[in-house]
């Protein structure tokens, strides 16, 4: 098989694995808007359970797309934001919104 095809296929597989998960794209889209705390994300995503949100955030952090900052306070405060690498996805989010018929410039 052509080396270029193999490289492309591996890139596609990597992208699909990064974004696979029922809530990952929605989490990334929300974090693309601004930093969020856990309960803000949970309230903003109808139907997500605490368990699933925790699992998806852990995977996104492990994959280097989300940065988690825990502050040594009582009560504990944890904030989530996109990593610098994930911020490069801005054009991808805009393309998806436009493709879906929701051009952010027009809404």
TrEMBL record:
Keywords: DNA-binding, Transcription, Transcription regulation. GO terms for molecular function: DNA binding. PROSITE patterns: HTH_HXLR. The keyword DNA-binding applies. It holds the Pfam family HxlR. Residues 10-107 form the HTH hxlR-type domain. This is MarR family transcriptional regulator. It comes from Metarhizobium album.
């Amino acid at each position: 098989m052509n080396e270029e095809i193999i490289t492309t296929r591996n890139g596609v597989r990597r992208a699909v694995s990064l974004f696979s998960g029922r809530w990952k794209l929605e989490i990334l889209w929300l974090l693309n808007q601004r930093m969020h705390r856990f309960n803000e994300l949970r309230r903003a995503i109808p139907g997500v359970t605490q368990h699933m949100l925790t699992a998806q955030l852990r995977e996104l952090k492990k994959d280097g797309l989300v940065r988690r900052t825990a502050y040594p306070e009582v009560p504990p405060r944890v904030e989530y934001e996109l990593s610098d690498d994930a911020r490069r996805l801005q054009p991808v989010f805009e393309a998806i919104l436009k493709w879906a018929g929701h051009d952010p410039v027009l809404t």
